[in-house]
Amino acid sequence: LVDGQIHIELVIEKSSKELDLEFIYEKEPPEFYENSFSDIVVDVLKNQLNLSSIDNMFFHTHYKNIFISEIKKIIEPLYNSKETLLDPFCEFLFNKYQDYILLDIGEKIMILILGKVPNIAKFINFYNGNPTSINGQTIEKPNITYLENVYTYNSILSALNNRQNFITKHNIEKLERGDFLLERMKKSLLGLIEKREELDKQKVEETSKEYQDLLFDIDITERDIINRENRKKKADEENASLKEEYQQLNDQKEDIKKALISAIKSFDKLL
Q: What is the pLDDT confidence band of residue 183, given thresholds at 50, 70 and 90?
């Protein structure tokens, strides 16, 4: 750390021909890059690559350079040397995190589809397996395909609507929140037990009001935990099929994202 900031050494001897980019990359944890790139994705999709106003050719022609440029804005202020590998390092980062960036873009596209944002249907249906002419050459556009399933805008919208309706109908968030409340109660019980052990060390009389109140709190908390665990067990048994269906809907959403990313990367290779 220098002046409260993380600085990345990107130094290379003028005579050197080998760029040890992996060594430079390992100077920072993956979380540093992932958090930075997630912020970049949001900003880029709001501005340079606003999918409500651009077409697929603009996206494919410019998205790599746009992201490298934005990555450069994050990395450049971290320099403390005149001799650097800024440009190749930024391209290295994009290539290393391309799938991560595209997955994040895919997640944002799911939101846009669910919101029926203008132009998004056209963007998705571009990947339809049909031939198209680019620079005088006829190429076949890839389908959005994953595990032999072919997706279109309508089928993706239907899948996302099914998932959203399922969450609303069965109050999935409340079911998941119940697990959190039980864990919080268990932590509270541990705190009470630790407090009792501390009173024991201090040789506080068991007949004292402080000690008796603490025992009372421990007993109530233990009973509440047992009751909640019993209710949770019964609810888990009743909702086992719901949770399985919810997981299947989540898996389908992830499959769609992977299919979209595969189509984008496949089309990149054709350009």
A: confident
**What is the rounded CA–CA span in Å between residue 94 and residue 91?**
5
Q: How crowded is residue 101: how many other Cβ atoms within 10 Å of its Cβ? A: 23
Instruction: Give the tens place of pLDDT for each residue, 6-54.
Output: 555 444 443 343 456 777 777 778 888 888 999 999 999 999 999 999 9
Maximum CA extent, the chain: 93
Q: Any idea what DSSP says for residue 142? A: P
What whole-number distance in Å separates Cα of residue 50 and Cα of residue 39?
A: 15
Q: Rg of the chain's alpha carbons, rounded to an integer?
A: 27
Q: List the beta strands (DSSP E) in 100-200.
A: 131-134, 137-140, 144-146, 149-151
Burial class of residue 264 in the structure, from the number of CB atoms within 10 Å of its CB (0-12 exposed, 13-18 middle, 19+ buried): buried
**Which CA distances in Å does 19 have to 23, 78, 93, 136, 195?**
9, 18, 13, 37, 57
Question: pTM (2 decimals)?
Answer: 0.70
Q: How confident is the model over 198-220, as a mean pLDDT?
A: 83
Strand spans (E) along the chain: 131-134, 137-140, 144-146, 149-151
| CB burial string 47-77: b at 16+ within 10 A, e below | ebbebeebebeebbeebeebbbebbbebbee
Is 138 strand, coil or helix?
A: strand
Q: Which of 10-14, 58-62, 164-168 has the highest mean pLDDT?
A: 58-62
Q: How far apart are CA 242 and CA 244, in angstroms?
A: 5
CA atoms within 13 Å, Cβ hemisphere of 109:
26
pLDDT tens per residue across span 210-263: 888 888 889 899 988 888 888 878 777 777 788 888 899 999 999 999 999 999
